Structure prediction request, 367 residues.
Amino acid sequence: MKKLIYRKFYLDISAFFLASLVIAGLIVWTIQAVNYFDFVTEDGHGLKIYFYYSILNFPKIIQRILPFIFFLSIFYTIIRYEIKNEIFIFWLNGVSKINFLNKLLIFSLVYMIFQIFLGSYIAPLSKLEARNYLKNSNIDFFTSLIKEGKFINVTKGLTIFIDKKKNDGSFENIFLEENKKQNTKMIYASSGILVEDKSRKVLELFNGKVINIKKKKINIFDFDQINFNLQNLNTKTITVPKIQEIDTKILLSCFFDIQNKKFDKFNCDENLFKEIKIELTKRLYKPIYIPIIVLFTAFLILFSKNDKNYKTKINFLFLIIFFILVYSEISVRYVGLSINYAILYLLIPITIFIIGYYSFYKLSKNA
Prediction:
C-alpha cells in the first residue's frame, strides 16, 4: 500500500512538473526567439538557420528553469494533497513525517542527476551545435539586407552600397569594397542585378570600374559586365565557442592542467581559469540545491490547513525557498574570486541542509 501511495504522489509531481516545464520553457523560448531573430537575420542568415538556431537553444532554457519548476511542482502538489486531505493517507498507513521527507529527498536525487546531465552535456552540446551551424552557414538572406542608400557590411571584409533598387529587382549605382589582408578591391557599377539559383548566387554588374590596391600599387580597369560571387560569403557572427558551449570533459581537463592545452578552437588559458571554475560549479555542484529546496518544501507537511495562519506560513516558506534559489544563482558568480569564496560556496548549502534537516526532525516530533 505504501508503494502505491508513494507512486501516485511521485506521478502527480512529475505530471505537473513536465507540463509546467514545457509551458514555461516555450514561453521563455518564444521571448528569446524574438531576440534571436534580430541576432541571426541582421547577420545575413535566413529563416531556416534562425529556427534551427532557436530550437538548439531550448535545452539551455530548460536547464535554467528546471530547479524553480521542480520546486513549484512539489510545493503545489503537497498543498493540494493537504487541501483534499489526501496527505493523511500517508500517516494512516504508518508513514512517519521524517520517513516521508527521506523518500522525497531520494526522489529529488533523480532530478538532481538529470539536471547535472542536462547542464554538463545536453545544453553545452546543443549550444555548440547552434554555434557551429552559424559558422558553417553562408549568407542566405542577402536580398532582404539590401536597402537603398545604406552601407551593408554584414560579411567579413565586404562593404556594399546601393543607391537605388528598382521594382524589377535591379540596382543602380552600386559600390563594393572588398578587403583581404593587404589587398583592397573597389568596384563601381552603374547597374546590376542579383542572380541566384541552386548552383550559384552572383551579383551581375554592368558598366563600371574596378580599382585594385595591392601593396600601395593601384590598378584600374573598366568593364562592361563582371560577376561578383556571393555564394561563399561568411557571416560576421562570432563563431569561436564560448565557455558555456565547451564540453565538460574539456573544462575539467583545463581546470586541472590549465597550461599548454588546446582543443579545436578553444585554448586553455590562465585568464579563463575564473570563468572555467564558475562554469564547472554551475554544471556539477549547483544542482545540489534541488534536494535543499525539496527539504524546505517538505516543511509544508508540518502545517495544517486548519491553522489560522496557514496561508501566512506557506507564503513565508515560499519566500524562504525562493530566496535560496536566488542565492544559488547569485552566489556562484563569486566562486572564481578566491579559494576562500569557493570553499564558502561549497560549505554553505551543506550547512543549510544540515540545519534544515535537523529542524525538520525536531519539529516533526512535536507535530
